[in-house]
Design a protein that fits this description.
Order of helices and strands: HHHHHHHHHEEEH
CATH architecture of the largest domain: Orthogonal Bundle
CATH topology of the largest domain: Ribonuclease iii, N-terminal Endonuclease Domain, Chain A
Helix content: 55-70%
Structural class: mainly alpha
CATH superfamily of the largest domain: Ribonuclease III domain
Strand order of the largest sheet: 1-2-3
Number of domains: 2
CATH class of the largest domain: Mainly Alpha
Distance between the termini: 59 Å
């Protein structure tokens, strides 16, 4: 009987998300890396499907926040702000603040290679948690969670407001150089969570590379690599 009670004990991740789950199993799944599953467990018990959904929920909430808070901003500025808010590094930073790395359920080998601190894993877990909140409490709950953690960053960010591709093209033209040329170097990962690596070539310069979950985002990151290297962007 004691063993049965222990097995039925609700999952407690030991972190404060500012949200109480009606279904703790959703949070448990959001915090579970595939390496923690036993051979007999379904792969859907890891965070991957939730990460796919959470990415979309995060995007909608952030886009709505930007639309309301920057009524005079043009599309290019909104896109630049949006990319900064939803990028992997921002999500990983928030995950670290919430101590999601410590709460993550991962296999021994993954833990020994620093999995709890890997930017990619932290970002994925963060998005999975958003999805878990959305499925448990609906859109208002997920919106409140995102607003609480992302809105201060949105209002305090002071980076370049032009998107990287446009800025790089204008900079190249000002130097009398041809339009930058973008090329997909690799595409990896499953269809629901691809990862693109794109290279951008500017005449006379070393190629810049960038990665992202879409071709467009990878192109932006590649352009940003060149802009930073050439000292055009210094944020």
């Amino acid at each position: 009987m004691a063993a049965r009670k222990a097995a039925e004990k609700p999952f407690d991740p030991g972190v404060d998300l500012g949200y109480a789950f009606e279904r703790p199993d959703l949070l448990q799944r959001a915090l579970t890396h595939a390496s923690a599953l036993t051979p007999g467990e379904n792969g859907n018990q890891s965070y991957q499907r939730l990460e796919f959904l959470g990415d979309r929920v995060l995007g909608l909430v952030v886009a709505t926040m930007l639309h309301h808070n920057f009524p005079n901003a043009e599309e290019g500025e909104l896109a630049r702000r949006f990319n900064h808010m939803v990028k992997r590094e921002t999500c990983a930073e928030i995950a670290a603040e919430l101590n999601l790395g410590d709460a993550m359920r991962i296999g021994l080998s993954e833990a020994q290679t620093g999995g709890r601190k890997k930017t990619a894993l932290l970002a994925d877990i963060c998005e999975a948690v958003i999805a878990a909140i959305y499925l448990d409490g609906g859109y208002p709950a997920a919106e409140a969670f995102v607003q609480r953690l992302w809105k201060p960053r949105m209002l305090s960010w002071s980076g370049p407001l032009r998107d990287a591709k446009t800025t790089l093209q204008e900079w190249a033209q000002s130097k009398g150089l041809p339009t930058p040329n973008y090329q997909v170097l690799t595409r990896e990962g499953p269809d629901h969570a691809p990862n693109f690596v794109v290279g951008v070539s500017v005449t006379g310069l070393e190629r810049g590379e960038g990665a992202g979950g879409s071709k467009r985002l990878a192109e932006q990151n590649a352009a940003e690599t060149v802009l930073r290297r050439e000292g055009v962007w210094n944020e």
